[in-house]
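So, read this over?
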Amino acid sequence: MNMKQTIITFFLALITLTSTAQTKSEENPGWLWEISGNGITQKSYLFGTCHGDGHIFTKEEMFSINGLETALGKVEKVLFEGGMDSTANTEVDKEAIEKFIKWLKNPGQEWMMPQGTYYKPLYDTVAHFNEVNKFLYYKMKDPEYWKKNPGYWFSKLTIYEMLRQKKDEVSIDRLLKEEVEKRSIGVGFVEKNIGVSGTLFSMLTDMTSIDTIPMKRQANMLYHYIHDVLNNDSLFNMRGGISKAYLENDTCKFWEYIRSMDAVPGAESADDNNHEILHDRNLLWIPVIKENIAARPCMIAVGCRHLLGRESLIALLRRDGYTVTPIRKN
């Protein structure tokens, strides 16, 4: 696993896919699905959004999703994810956040360089060392950066870059929420924040994926991350491709695009963290969704990866007796 793959895995936590796409019997399904049957008297909708990839979406791009504007005019309430949305008025996992802040300031002995090991001898060229030294010393403002091992810097730089991109992006979720509020449609959320932030932070502070890699290789992976991703912004350019694939409104093509990038190691077999972020959350959301769609026509607007795979919201609703069908592209 190279450094770019490792970082992309973290960055795509909100859009990573962990199982197969929709069945081939449903050719070219898009991101908007109709929910009916099982006793509900009015149709509701399931909409896969795109967030966390740094793209600046426009309203025109959002409404290019076939049927979305029409469906929005038929619903009385839109339920968003909530989770780490600061406007969700949901409970924050304060303990997890406090632990993470403490980790950033005092990462613990397992994140320290082995005694007698320094960065400069780990690099084959002085130029590589100088670039890492300059970035961590001046840009990260840490004159004692050399005390922490590369694994620590992978995670710290990842969360810093993730927050930076999050600040700059205009997500589909944000645009949709603005439109919903403008139309005075009710707003709700399918989850509480507690647990989600803890899972994300535990992913970023997990040593198991890197502690078996020799220190020299770790150092060179760190160099390539700083040189190829942060300095050249290649990760942002790659993520622009994901947004473009999303806007094709074709879940099968989107899945194939992700797979073709060969940039998300382990996507075919979910690990415990991805299982918690995807499958476990889907299960927790189902009762909330069922309660709301029984009371009124709703739109459930959640990250697009929750609509993909054998344990998707689509699959779970169907198992409970609902008819869930895609709104086809024109």
In short: The beta strands are 32-36, 44-49, 77-80, 186-189, 298-303, 323-326.
